Amino acid sequence: MLGIRTFDPRSGGNMAYKALTHPLAAEQLASLADDLRNAGPIAIYDPHDMVETVMALLPAPVTVAGIYTHDSLKVGQMRAGMVLQPVVDLAQGGAGTVWALDFNHAVMQGRLSGLLPADGVLHTLEPVRLPRHMLSVAHDYLHRLNFATNLAFFRDTAALSTRLVTANYWARYGARAVRLWLCLFDQDGHVLQTWDYDVPGDGQAIIIDSAEIRSRFGLPEFTGQLFIHAQGIAGHDVVKYALETRGQGANASLSVTHDANAWPANRYANLPAPAAGEDVVLWVQNSHDLPVPSGSMTLNRMGQDAHVPIMPELAPYQTMAVHMRDILPGLSWPEQIEFRAGGHVVRSRYEITQHGRTRIAHLNVQRADLQPDPGIARLDPRFFGRGYLLPFPVPDPARYRTLLLPSPMAESLTSLPVRVDCFDAEGTAGPSRFMGCLPRDHAALLDVSALATGSGHGELLYDFRDGGQADGWLHALIRYEDRQTGHASETSFGSHIFNTVMTYKGEPQSYVGPPPGLSTRLFLTAAASEPFSFCRLIYPASATWRPHSDTSLYLHAADGTVMAHEKIAIPMSGSREIWPHRVFGLPVLARAGEGAYVIIRDTTCRLFGYHGRMAEGEGRFSVDHMFGF
């Protein structure tokens, strides 16, 4: 396991990790580490408690004589296998070289000038700093806005191409000169190209198309990853996007997935075992400028401790396809697979090939910090009604199968007591099914299309009639199958408390400001030709809330200009299918241009949506959960 601290839901992200793993910084860190190894034993001064992260990210170890702190309450604690010593004793440690883990050399020189050993040499992390023009907040190097970075699975071959789509949402927080620094790695981890993408307009569409990039730079075919660094930003340090995968020529593949989680984790879930006739590939993409040792990542059947190692070593930034039938030949759908990635990769993608088509979806981070919460079973129904809900679309059951597979999404969870409630589009409650108190290693699949009486949506929620645990992080994989064409798509997401004015441990969650979250801002692409964009917009309510939503649909042109505005009202516990080309008309979408999009806004309630693409004449489609700004 890579010994790094990345993201904690309570304390936020470790910006030192982001600062040190940026590809430009990682290159300089490797060079600095070479200099330090040649200097012999060194003393480390650790003013920001980042020594363990730094040591884990060095390509080869340095010899450390001692680690020092100025925090009197930390003296005597263990860091990186050594006892922290007071910095006033720095000169007595016997090391001639001191490495201060701070990005400002002048500040460290001034602080330590009277403490350095005679003829001592001071090194800092200043050589690892990014250039000033790449920083959004130049006076505070480790500010979260300086490291709004992410990775995307990116591919362009004769059979498949990818397109990353988002918008300049930072402008609404005051940003005026947004730009992206982009670095494309091939399958072996080599840099194919770096370039800048200027996004000066308020709400301007962002489109990064693999075919256009390949043509512009004269690149060969590639299957790798794209590193994205947003600069000149304000308000929001998360790089959000939709990633489209399309078949070329006669290839009928079509997928749209959510952005990758920008922070590596130790475990991931929501990886399905292959069904008959399927090839399930896990795309393992090394997120660091370090090799991943052979056998340090493993796969196992969810809930079982028989771990099968991934044996090939991965080079820095390398992309590797791991076929589930090769590594876990005894498993089949609906069994689930757990990926123990050891902090080496961000949220991976998996790709399923069936009937000559591929579909792509993402794994989800399995939380290490969560423990079962007995308080969830005791939530006051007057305040929270049915509590935590995971809403998901149920399209016309005569045409589509909707298959739901609950997934444990915390390392500590041993049971899942769940049921599914169905609602029609007008919010009328329909059939309900208690799935049981499922064990961690379950393979219980519910055909919701056989349960529902028509199109609408379902909600997965806790049901403690047979006991069981809850942690508030209830997830499921939902698979959609077209009965006529055989095309399929899938998505996965987690539960929240929706539309209650009382709060419980940060729920109903708000992405802007403190809870309760009682408003909506969602992003939907708007295509003027097939495959058309659509979304299923759901108004979930844990308890009784407003009878109808007050929802606005704003069509934005590619330059961010608002072209049109429509209003809709969704009944509580109901849903609506929204097709921008039908709402606004094809002529208007054509004038809006390539990259046009819709912002779905509601200040009266929290809506939840699933976006996708569909080529109606061909029957190919995709579905994944939406994101907002």
**Could you name the ranges where pLDDT drops below 50 across 5 or more consecutive residues?**
none
Shape: globular
**What's the arrangement of strands in the largest beta sheet?**
5-6-4-3-7-8
**Average of pLDDT:** 95
Distance between the ends = 33 Å
User: How many β-strand runs?
Assistant: 43
Structural class: mainly beta
Strand content: 35-45%
Number of helices: 10
Question: Could you describe the largest sheet, including whether it forms a barrel?
Answer: 6 strands, mixed
Q: What gyration radius follows from the Cα positions, in whole Å?
A: 25 Å
| Helix content, binned percent | 10-25%
Written account of the structure:
- With 629 residues, the chain is mainly beta.
- The chain is built from ten helices and 43 strands.
- Strands 5-6-4-3-7-8 form a six-stranded mixed beta sheet. A five-stranded antiparallel beta sheet has the order 20-19-22-17-25, with no helix packed on it. The chain has a five-stranded antiparallel beta sheet with strand order 29-28-31-26-34.
- The chain is globular.
- The two termini are 33 Å apart.
- The model has no long low-confidence stretch (mean pLDDT 95).
